[in-house]
Every structure is written in C-alpha cells, then in structure tokens.
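Case study.
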Amino acid sequence: SQELEQSPQSLIVQEGKNLTINCTSSKTLYGLYWYKQKYGEGLIFLMMLQKGGEEKSHEKITAKLDEKKQQSSLHITASQPSHAGIYLCGAGASSNTGKLIFGQGTTLQVKP
Amino acid sequence: ETGVTQTPRHLVMGMTNKKSLKCEQHLGHNAMYWYKQSAKKPLELMFVYNFKEQTENNSVPSRFSPECPNSSHLFLHLHTLQPEDSALYLCASSREGSGNSPLHFGNGTRLTVT
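After joint prediction, the assembly is written out as follows.
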C-alpha cells in the first residue's frame, strides 16, 4: 500500500529563518495536498499540486511537486510565529478515488 | 469560521455507552469523510460517502457505525468502544469524492473512552 513519509518529524527555527519540509511517496502521487493543523484542531487546506514540476505559492509558503510526482516540498520564507503548527501532506492513494492518505506530520516551532 | 461543523467538541464515554458524533457541512459538497487521528500516528481514513453512498470502509470495526442521511450531514455512531479508540475524530467534505478536490475539515471531536 502507498505510504507518505515526511521529514523532518519536528523542526525548531528562529523567527525570520527559512525552512523546508519534505514529503516522499512510495508510489506515484495522484494529487498532493498540503495542510496545516494547530494542536487539537482541524486541518486547514494550504495548497494542492497535481502536475509534475508544478509549483504554487501563497504568501510566504511555496510548495513544489517534482517531475516524477513522488516527492513534494513545502518551503517557508522568513518564518513567523504564526507559521507554527503541524504540517501534513496528503495524497490520493490511487487515481479517481476518494481515498486520501496522509503523512505523519511535521511539527514546526518558531522561536521569536 | 469553518464550513464543516462537528459536535460535540469533547466527549468522554464509558465502554458500555452508546453515543453519536455529528458532522454538518455548509459548503454544498457531495462527499464526506471520517478520519481518526491518534497520537504519533498518521491520519487514518475510516469511511467515505459520495452522494450519500458509502464508497469506502477502511476495515473499521463494527463498533463504529456511520450514517449519511443526506450530503450535508454525517454521523458516527459509537457503541462498546475500547480505550484504544480514544482519539481525535475528524470529519471532512469535498466537492466530489474522486480525490481531485481538496478536503475541508471540521475541528474534530476529542473522544476519551474510560
């Protein structure tokens, strides 16, 4: 079965620093989603990538999907305390099904 | 304010109790989902409903019983649960259930089984 592996599992950065979170799949990705979660709350949708080589940005967050569609990265520029939380990648387990699987999450702390 | 509302936010129940979790979406979506989130484990998909029809049951024990009376409402009926069922239960919806549209999540119900 398909699995998503996120790295690192946790990250502590100083405010203003850049950081990258990676998501690697054991199989071809059919739609890759990035979410952010605050502890004990629901997931907030950040971005969706579908095409190999695709890159999207929103404010200071940029997500990329590699050409082979088996790895994605999330890059935060000039991190702020508001970026703190758990970042999760999710992907369709196969094409045209609603079965979305998730990585284990990356916990980000931003020190002021 | 989230377009997906879950009630209650917190629930404590004994192993012999029967309770239900409720989810309502105001986004006009046609697919709804139940996920379980346990500490230090990835989100686990439990059930998927597409146009009120169950399209996925991810080998969930029968002590969890879903109900989807219409595209806007989803319930999870609980009975004779075990302490290891304690977790955050998240409901989500999407425009359609093919995996080509993002999921929108509620804030979850924190369930504790004593």
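Observations recorded in class. The interface with chain B takes residues 4, 30-31, 33, 35, 40-45, 48, 50, 88, 90, 92-93, 95-105 of chain A (CB under 8 Å). The mean pLDDT of chain A is 90. We will return to this complex in the next lecture.
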